[in-house]
Design goal:
Blueprint lengths: L8 E5 L6 H14 L7 E5 L5 H8 L5 E4 L16 H6 L4 E4 L2 H5 L8 H10 L3 E6 L3 H5 L3 H12 L12 E4 L13 H19 L1 H4 L3 E5 L7 H5 L6 E4 L6 H8 L4
Parallel strand pairs: 1-2, 1-8, 2-3, 3-4, 4-5, 5-6, 6-7, 7-8
Bound molecules: 1,3-dihydroxyacetonephosphate.
The site of 1,3-dihydroxyacetonephosphate has 14 residues, from strand 8.
């Protein structure tokens, strides 16, 4: 399956930003501009506390709503955590797993990723599994090795039949929130490594259905250029997803 057969996926990760009123305003504005969602998939990953309200406003539109993290058990003594079923219950249909801020700031180990991906698939919460190297890793020429290790962890319990429900986001840590974007060559090489690894793991056919997004300082000014890179099927946008006037031109990168 080629790039063209995979529907472009533009996702906004709000992280710990906005407030309730501004979140709902943004959802209303984007919803009003989306159309039927036939030619692209658009989603927001909102703070968990706002998910129910945000999902209620998005209802009836093709806008996807997701959480930014989950724990992999369905209940139990896990103070401060949220089970996948809880996100589903309030209207979320997707979730980010292994975002670099979870890994770097909150110390989430690679070992949790397989169970988190499995738990999300089992709950019908579509996962975006995030991977990416740090600046030190890139400088030490370890990018490929790091990406493969993260892929191995995330795919631990993924079967070939699950693959089409999975999305990968390549987010080089050094490009997140820094204004520094990876070069075309760097993005292309990383996405090629990811797709090749997946082909060996779940086969060519299933791999052709998996979208690979790029994330890291995506803006209205570079969205079109990044989307034109071979094997880039979408964008995971942080800062520029917080306002309609910066996120809309990214969604509409080709208009
Ligand atoms: P920025 O777009 O703010 O660099 O964030 C990228 C990101 O981490 C999205 O998940």
């Amino acid at each position: 399956m080629t790039n063209a057969a995979r529907k472009p996926y533009i996702a906004g990760n709000w992280k710990m930003n906005l407030d309730r009123a501004r979140s709902l305003d943004l959802i209303k504005t984007i919803k009003g501009r989306l159309g039927d969602g036939g030619d692209r998939e658009v989603a927001f990953f909102a703070p968990a506390i706002y998910l129910a309200d945000v999902a209620a406003v998005a209802q009836g539109s093709p806008l996807g709503i997701g959480g930014q993290n989950i724990w992999y058990d369905s209940d139990g003594a896990f103070t401060g955590e949220l089970a996948p079923r809880m996100l589903r219950e309030v209207g979320a249909d997707r979730v980010l797993i292994g975002h670099s801020e979870r890994r770097q700031v909150f110390g989430e180990p690679n070992e949790w990723m397989g169970r988190k991906v499995r738990a999300s698939l089992d709950t019908d919460l579509l996962p975006i599994y995030c991977i990416g190297e740090t600046l030190d890793e890139r400088k030490a020429n370890r990018t490929d090795r790091v990406l493969k290790k993260q892929l191995e962890a995330g795919f631990e319990q993924v079967k070939t039949v699950d693959a089409h429900r999975l999305t990968i986001a390549y987010e080089p840590v050094w490009a997140i929130g820094t204004g520094e974007t990876a070069t075309t060559e760097q993005v292309e090489a990383a996405h090629r490594t990811i797709r090749k690894w997946m082909a060996q793991r779940v086969g060519e056919e299933a791999t052709g259905t998996v979208r690979i997004l790029y994330g890291g300082s995506v803006k209205p000014t570079n969205a079109k250029e990044i989307m034109a890179i071979d094997d880039v099927d979408g964008l995971l946008v942080g800062g520029a997803s917080l306002q309609a006037d910066t996120f809309l031109p990214i969604i509409e990168y080709d208009r």
